[in-house]
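Write out this protein's structure.
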Amino acid sequence: MLEKLDRQDFDKIFEIMQASFPKDEYRTYEGQKALLDREKYNVVVTRHDKEIVAFICYWADDDIAFIEHFAVSPSIRGHGLGGAMLGELLCSLRGKMVCLEAEPPDNDTAARRIAFYERNGFYLNAHPYMQPSLANGRSPVRLMIMTSDRPVNAEEFLMLKKKLYESFYKDTTNS
């Protein structure tokens, strides 16, 4: 189901990204596309009738994987595709702690999204977290970190946050 993104299909995932995330939660077109050249950055997609309908962008190193963006095309949400994709990705990343950012459960949409991730093996961590600004003119975003397999304690959270900022966000912002 998951296949590596072919660079020529980047425009389609960026289109889905724009439809799925607030502007402050993704980079500019050029900044996002430049990530494809990063060694630790990966994009996998799922197709339906040869058309990309969903994607997961994630960073991975030896012990941690960070799902930065995950979206299913609005026209086919709610049919189990997202859960199947997430399950396949988690199997492929076995042995790594997988984390992702989620909006605080301040509204029904955010609460449903958190519930989706919890059904798929993630735990919401209550530690304070801000996603850094991803481009000039964009603001940092108050988010929460969810982790696979188990919640993390305060000390583990600080190490995880440092890893996200220094290994994955470093030099990829403000484009």
